[in-house]
């Protein structure tokens, strides 16, 4: 479904991504892992058209979309749960969810999108009129996921969904992600919590200093001595 070829992204004179190659097949869950500053969020932004590409290409179903506008991505069936969730905290749960149906293509695909979000996260139905700013971090992450899912995207990208959350909330967030994966949605997960990410992924890529340094199945990377010592902090 998604193919990245020799992708380079520069911030001024500094290279943020250095010739990244990766693929995401339909129905897969793929993790993009690495330490803070490795280039994960830059890659996510480049995939979603939020960061200009210096060279290389991003292909969706074989079509080069690397230089198309960010506003085109939802029309192509891509959706993102951004780092920090970026909800409108003074708006209700329902109104935040409805923002996922912001264009005609999304509305056509997601005619029953709100019901999908409510069925996946029943607490949101009960709290549909509650202001998002009054909800817990885990509940807000459900809203952010629901907002992305209401359009029934073909590819869902999650950028650091556990960042800044307490351990008990992180556990709740990954339970939510597991529920999404169970819906056979194709998922690309950029995440610092490598053990949790790899545990639910079919495959993964390890980024360091803007380059892919390792790739393999989730199990292979979890069992890799290099990953365990350098990236998971295990001896």
UniProtKB/TrEMBL annotation:
Residue ranges of every copy of the ABC transporter domain listed in the record: 2-234
Pfam families: ABC_tran (PF00005)
GO molecular function: ATP binding; ATP hydrolysis activity; branched-chain amino acid transmembrane transporter activity
InterPro entries listed in its UniProt record: AAA+_ATPase (IPR003593), ABC_transporter-like_ATP-bd (IPR003439), ABC_transporter-like_CS (IPR017871), BCAA_Transport_ATP-bd_LivF (IPR052156), P-loop_NTPase (IPR027417)
A GO BP entry: L-amino acid transport
CDD domains: ABC_TM1139_LivF_branched
Keywords, sorted A to Z: Amino-acid transport, ATP-binding, Nucleotide-binding, Transport
SMART domains in alphabetical order: AAA
Similarity section: Belongs to the ABC transporter superfamily.
Name of the protein in question: ABC transporter ATP-binding protein
């Amino acid at each position: 479904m998604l193919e990245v070829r020799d992708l380079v992204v520069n911030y001024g004179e500094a290279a943020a991504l250095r010739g990244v190659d990766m693929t995401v097949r339909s129905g897969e869950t793929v993790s993009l892992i690495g330490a803070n500053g490795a280039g994960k969020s830059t890659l996510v932004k480049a995939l979603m058209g939020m960061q200009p590409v210096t060279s290389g290409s991003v292909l969706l179903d074989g079509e080069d979309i690397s230089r198309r506008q960010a506003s085109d991505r939802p029309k192509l069936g891509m959706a993102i749960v951004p780092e920090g969730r970026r909800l409108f905290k003074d708006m209700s749960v329902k109104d935040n969810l409805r923002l996922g149906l912001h264009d005609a293509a999304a509305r056509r695909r997601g005619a029953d999108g709100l019901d999908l979000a409510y069925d996946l996260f029943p607490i949101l139905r009960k709290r549909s009129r509650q202001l998002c700013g009054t909800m817990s971090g885990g509940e807000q992450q459900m809203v952010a996921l629901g907002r992305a899912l209401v359009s029934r995207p073909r590819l869902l990208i999650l950028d650091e969904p556990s960042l800044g959350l307490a351990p008990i909330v992180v556990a709740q967030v990954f339970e939510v992600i597991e529920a999404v994966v169970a819906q056979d949605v194709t998922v690309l997960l950029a995440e610092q919590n490598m053990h949790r990410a790899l545990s639910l992924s079919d495959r993964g890529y390890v980024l360091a200093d803007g380059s892919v340094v390792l790739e393999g199945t989730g199990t292979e990377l979890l069992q890799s001595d290099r990953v365990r010592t350098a990236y998971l902090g295990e001896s």
